Amino acid sequence: MKKLTVLSGGMGGARFLQGLLHGITAGTLPGVDGDAEVTVVANTADDWWVHGLKVCPDLDTVMYTLGDGIDPDRGWGRRDETWSAKEELAAYGVEPTWFGLGDRDIATHLVRTQLIDAGYPLSKVTEALCRRWLTPTWGDRVRLLPMTDDRVESHVAVADADSPSGRRVVHFQEYWVRMRAEVPAETVVVVGIDDSSPAPGVLDAITGADIVLFPPSNPVVSVGTILGVPGIRDALRTTTAPVVGLSPIVGGSHVRGMAEQLLASIGVEVSAVGVGRHYGARSAGGVLDGWLVDERDAADVTGLEEAGIRCSAVPLMMTDHAATAAMAAAAIELAAS
Ligand code: GDP
Ligand code: CA
């Protein structure tokens, strides 16, 4: 197995990729070549413009994580970060004060914004940024592609008693960072998705892969938005590669983040079986051949198999690289079975 394609969000996807690459390097993934190539198709619907800068949280989390520049405690942004620019902006009273951009991180956004202003598409800009973060360690073996070059943004409708309509629509970042996902979400609106097209290389990465993996990323605002880009779902339905996912829901709740709230808002049961059925079996018009659930959710296996999805229950906590590599190995084994 030479070509692996992963549809990734931010932290969950990045941690999974670390384990996957660890497994490739250590030779512990069954049937995977030591020089296998990994293409990451990352969610860009978390992106937004703030303080005049184009910020791409999921692309950057993957890039910094695989380039060893991530802050390991926060799981986002740069290590050894300082916050002078944020403090200065706050001193001017410039909103949003609740969104933290670190000084080192700002350099990335300045470079990205300049290149975008100069007319380069996000995919080219990402390639340029990755020459710093990925090439030194991974050469050509790891590619990071935005799901689309078009502007697509997740917004969340939340209840708001002060508004005449009883609701207010905020950018996903405001829902997550300012409101901490504590306000009930009524629905998720992915602005621009219907008119977007996959970035160059994305469809080929799916149709030309030996395996496609969904890491335990958010099913609504990470994998869900990637699947919403017209053409991507069809590529997954028609690829000859097996498509296998890993559940981000363990024991009926998310491990971190806000998947529970958002799954509820789209009417999907918050469980490993609920998310697996939501993606659906490829044999029945969905996108999955296989789905891994955590050992604690072993009782879900039968229901998923009945839905036409191959399933097994294994430990799914990404506690360290070795444990995560074992998850990747289990996904690859499931694909081969
Ligand atoms: P985000 O963009 O930073 O929110 O990251 P992702 O969308 O890639 O991943 C978020 C998802 O990862 C959440 O729904 C979590 O439940 C899931 N997650 C985080 N850590 C783990 C873990 O150790 N095991 C599993 N199974 N899921 C995890
Ligand atoms: Ca994200």
From TrEMBL:
InterPro entries: CofD (IPR002882), CofD-like_dom_sf (IPR038136), FbiA/CofD (IPR010115). GO terms for molecular function: LPPG:FO 2-phospho-L-lactate transferase activity; magnesium ion binding. Its EC number is 2.7.8.28. Signal peptide: none annotated. Pfam families: CofD. The keyword Transferase applies. Transmembrane segments: none annotated. Keywords: Magnesium, Transferase. It comes from the Bacteria. This is 2-phospho-L-lactate transferase. It comes from Nocardioides antri.
